[in-house]
Design goal:
This protein is mainly alpha-helical and about 190 residues long. The protein has a single domain, classed as Arp2/3 complex 21 kDa subunit ARPC3 (Orthogonal Bundle), CATH 1.10.1760. The chain is about 70% helix and about 0% strand. It has eight helices and no strands. The longest helix has about 35 residues.
Length: about 190
Amino acid sequence: MKIERSILVSFVLLVLIASFYRLLPGRPLGFAPQIAMALFSGSIIKNKRYSFLLPILSMLLSDVLYEILFQYKISPIAGFYSGQVLNYVLFASVTLIGFLIQKNNWFQILAGGLSGASFYFLTSNFLVWISGGLGLNNLPYAKTWDGLVSCYTAAIPFYLGSLYATLIFSVILFGGFRLFSKYSVQSKVTA
């Protein structure tokens, strides 16, 4: 399989930009491009096995950078943690939602963004609750309906940041791809 150089360079740049974006201090909670990247790669990349690489590599690279910063006591956030594999599985699952998105259908892109961010929010917080994750009081959530509601309630700021980021980065990724495709087609016609 021959991969065009421009596509490979774009792929590498997307992974690097998204990886470093997660490290920015002061960004809103949950505001990161990885869910949009998962949807985009699921929709755009023809070889579906490779579509999982874009969000996973981005997460892995930023987690490695977080871990390095943590080890040198530059950041209080560890890059590697228990339950991390489940987080990667969730991003892979969001990529599956991208399979259903037609790259030029803005309604599907919007619906995919809402679905992807909501799926991630509902699933990840359920897993936090069921695995005994800690609440705002630094105690495990009770294994009751109220404990589950408390877990979801505490995560609403993350959900909102994630939802906004997913919608904004989806517009950037899908819109940029559309412009790139249009420009490259026009340049081939005029060449």
